């Protein structure tokens, strides 16, 4: 019998993944990561695809307190700022099960490495998902989302990718995951700062040359810091990825703008501000002035909204 796939984080991505795996007849349990000790439930979730067709599935939703152990693939789709607390909770439950971090950002795996998890994998997400109303969300894939080992084996990464893969939400194994993590972190640093500050959707970079010019400056700054850490990224490839995502998710709101609009904490600390911290640790903060300004403005905008 196939072991279950536990998805921690019942947000837009977690719910979409649960729907597609359920429709692919794979055993799935969706776990709320921000609340605990509530009754189990079943929820029918509707996903609107890029072509406006819809898919529906009924998914089991539980909390971590319902399980003494998680014997299967454990996928994190929660907000990355919850990883330190989650690492403490999962230590007694996960055993040798592989942990797949389906989050974007830099350094987000560190709490699990510090807690000595035996198998840690990073997945770089190339899809967008947005909650439209309770039980309904809009999902747009961009390309296959690669999964690679941070602490583990390439062979297990291939097995994980095969288990998570569906025709609608595709995954693939990737042996060289770090350059892809950096490329996507740079792209996300652009989307998650410029779009919320302009209060516009992801398609702005394909529509407006000034927005694209600003994006290119941030990309160049961040790529310089990546190189200082020993990871070399091609800025032309990053720009091409930015434009591909901008086109594929035209009309969709980036997660940070959704968070600000809904009075939730953002993940800007693991994007712009983490790159700034890395730059400062190397006495290179002067390289990332625009990246820092945009990150600081998002942090301030979020704080003002939360205090309102």
TrEMBL record:
Where the record annotates domain Ketopantoate reductase C-terminal, the positions are: 177-291
Q: What's a GO cellular component annotated to this UniProt protein? A: cytoplasm
**Catalysed conversion reaction:** (R)-pantoate + NADP(+) = 2-dehydropantoate + NADPH + H(+)
Q: Name one GO biological process term.
A: pantothenate biosynthetic process
- What does the record give as its pathway? Cofactor biosynthesis; (R)-pantothenate biosynthesis; (R)-pantoate from 3-methyl-2-oxobutanoate: step 2/2
| InterPro entries assigned to the protein according to its UniProt record, in alphabetical order | 6-PGluconate_DH-like_C_sf (IPR008927), 6PGD_dom2 (IPR013328), ApbA (IPR003710), KPA_reductase (IPR013752), KPR-Related (IPR051402), KPR_N (IPR013332), NAD(P)-bd_dom_sf (IPR036291)
**What top-tier enzyme class does this entry carry?**
oxidoreductase
Cite the entry's keywords alphabetically: NADP, Oxidoreductase, Pantothenate biosynthesis
A GO molecular-function descriptor? 2-dehydropantoate 2-reductase activity
Q: What are the residue boundaries of the Ketopantoate reductase N-terminal domain, all occurrences included?
A: 5-140
Annotated coiled-coil positions are none
Q: Please explain the role this protein plays, according to its UniProt record.
A: Catalyzes the NADPH-dependent reduction of ketopantoate into pantoic acid.
- Which NCBIfam families has this protein been placed in? apbA_panE (TIGR00745)
**Annotated family:** Belongs to the ketopantoate reductase family.
According to UniProt, the name of this protein is: 2-dehydropantoate 2-reductase
Q: What is the lineage of its organism?
A: Bacteria, Pseudomonadati, Bacteroidota, Cytophagia, Cytophagales
């Amino acid at each position: 019998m196939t072991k279950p796939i536990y998805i921690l984080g019942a947000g837009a991505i977690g719910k979409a993944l649960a729907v597609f795996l359920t429709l692919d007849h794979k055993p799935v349990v969706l776990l709320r990561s921000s609340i605990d000790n509530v009754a189990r439930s079943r929820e029918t979730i509707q996903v609107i695809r890029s072509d406006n067709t819809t898919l529906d599935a009924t998914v089991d939703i539980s909390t971590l307190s319902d399980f003494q152990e998680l014997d299967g693939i454990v996928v994190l789709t929660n907000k990355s700022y919850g990883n330190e607390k989650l690492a403490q909770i999962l230590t007694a439950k996960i055993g040798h099960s592989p942990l797949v971090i389906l989050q974007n950002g830099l350094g987000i795996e560190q709490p699990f490495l510090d807690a000595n998890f035996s198998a840690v994998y990073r997945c770089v997400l190339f899809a967008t998902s947005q909650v439209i109303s309770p039980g309904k969300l809009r999902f747009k894939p961009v390309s296959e989302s690669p999964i690679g080992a941070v602490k583990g084996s390439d062979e297990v990464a291939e097995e994980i990718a095969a288990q998570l893969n569906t025709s609608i939400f595709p995954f693939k194994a990737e042996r060289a995951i770090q350059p892809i993590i950096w490329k996507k972190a740079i792209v996300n640093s652009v989307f998650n700062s410029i779009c919320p500050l302009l209060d516009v959707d992801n398609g702005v970079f394909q529509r407006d040359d000034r927005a694209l010019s600003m994006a290119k400056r941030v990309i160049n700054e961040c790529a310089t810091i990546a190189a200082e850490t020993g990871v070399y990224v091609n800025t032309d490839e990053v720009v091409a990825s930015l434009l591909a995502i901008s086109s594929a998710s035209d009309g969709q709101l980036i997660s940070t703008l959704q968070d600000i609009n809904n009075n939730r904490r953002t993940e800007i600390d693991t994007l712009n501000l983490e790159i700034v911290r890395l730059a400062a640790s190397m006495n290179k903060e002067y390289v990332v002035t625009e990246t820092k300004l945009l990150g600081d403005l998002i942090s301030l905008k979020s704080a003002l909204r939360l205090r309102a």
